[in-house]
Amino acid sequence: MDMYETDKLLFRKLATPHAPFILKLVNTEGWLNYIGDRNVHNEQDVLGYIQKIVDMPKSHCWVVSLREGDDPIGIVTLFHRSYLEFNDLGFAFLPAYHGKGYAFEAAHHVMNFILNENNFPLLATCVAENTRSISLLEKLGFTYVGEVNPEGEGLRVYGVNLK
Description:
The protein is of the alpha+beta class. It has one domain (3-123): 3-Layer(aba) Sandwich (Aminopeptidase), CATH 3.40.630.30. The chain is built from 5 helices and 8 strands. Strand 4 and strand 5 (88-93) form a beta hairpin. Helix 1 (19-25) packs across helix 3 (43-54). It is globular and about 40 Å long.
């Protein structure tokens, strides 16, 4: 799944040419409040951050762009986290694209690929204050299954296709 598309969106594997977009995304208010400061403040920082993500085993990050115009608007991730039994589905979009259905379409597409092609269960994590993400996860069919506290950070865990 290096590149694929939906009716409105294009998905490409994260790579260094996405650096300006990633630098902008990780410094948005929503990212800083709900995901956390990753200390990515310049070109060198963002290139290191991208390489760290690309090098993560069993993990994937796609940059989501509008098909019309091809401008990056967000990311969808499948990260293998040591403190979770199954992959963690994540998403983050620039504020200008919130509330337009893009995050749902992108996350739904990745989720369906995993569930239909591989039949793997999926998890998703977020802080309790991130009500928009929780609402989206519930719309996608995820249900609350508990909490984890990696590195002392309380995260709510949601799951889908759990047997």
